[in-house]
Design brief:
Length: about 120
């Protein structure tokens, strides 16, 4: 999708709901971004949203590496083109993920590690 807003979320939800088998009901976990909670959001009858509580990174650990990328590699920079932005994001991600321990330190909540190590 080219944008993140309620109109595009509605298109996604409609397409997602239609892609499900007729006897399937999907439950989707979402953060509380404005387009996930907007009154104008239209959900298909076969989709239910559950919103994560605010400020709960342990329930949405994928947000933490992106925060780290923004803080360490992407903040206070001006990009003249979209291509430059994407190159910087790729470079930041590759730097961050070069050492697996970095990701483990950001996302390695006990509940998650115990589920993987069993």
């Amino acid at each position: 999708m080219p944008h993140v807003d309620t109109a595009h979320m509605n298109v996604f939800m409609e397409t997602f709901g239609q892609a499900l088998d007729p006897d399937v009901h999907a439950v989707v976990l979402r953060d509380q971004a404005g387009w996930h909670t907007a009154q104008a959001l239209k959900l298909p009858n076969n989709v239910t949203l559950i919103h994560l509580p605010p400020k709960s990174p342990e329930l949405n650990p994928s947000e933490l590496p992106w925060r780290e990328c923004r803080q360490k590699y992407l903040s206070n920079r001006l990009f003249k083109t979209e291509d430059q932005l994407w190159e910087a994001v790729e470079d930041a991600w590759l730097k961050l993920t070069a050492n697996p321990e970095t990701i483990r330190s950001l996302c390695g909540f006990e509940w998650l590690l115990s589920s993987v190590n069993n």
